[in-house]
Amino acid sequence: xxxxPYAKQGYIDHQTLSHDAYLxxxxxxxxxxxxxxxxxxxxxxxxxxVRENDPQxxxxxxxxxxxxxxxxxxxxNPTPAPGSPAALVxxxxxxxxxxxxxxxxxxxxxxxxxxxxQATATGSLNGVANGTQAAQGASTVPAGRQRKLVxxxxxxxxxxxxxxxxxxxxLTLVVHSRIGPVRTIHRGLRxxx
Length: 193
Prior knowledge:
The protein is mainly β.
């Protein structure tokens, strides 16, 4: 892995590289291509030859763009809390409005997580007594893949929506995974009967 403000972003190097490639890079960039030769630099060096001249050795200069504007560094916390978990990232796509055609009793959400997760949805309708569950659904979501979470409306919710012509559904999604903490996400949508 190459970390530098001049490294090519997203570049995958398929060359044969060794520690000698780093020495070759330093010699090429900072010494104008002059090689540190154990026979001539007057320092003890156990190497039998100058391996930077080996034709199969890759050239690290292809991993860099020295003419680009330097990329700003990403500063990491040098003393993170011991055992602090990675963050669970969840993306939920929900329609703003849903029309209940004859016989339709459910709606779909699209959920994506950065880790294998379990998403559970519950919902309540505005104007209905608190504690009255109007919708529920659950789905297991594989890491990095979008999965449909089907939310089923209760008979009481369907009756209320059709009786009033429409209602506002407040959904609460609770998402669990191996990496913490548990995420709670709220979405509101209008349902017309």
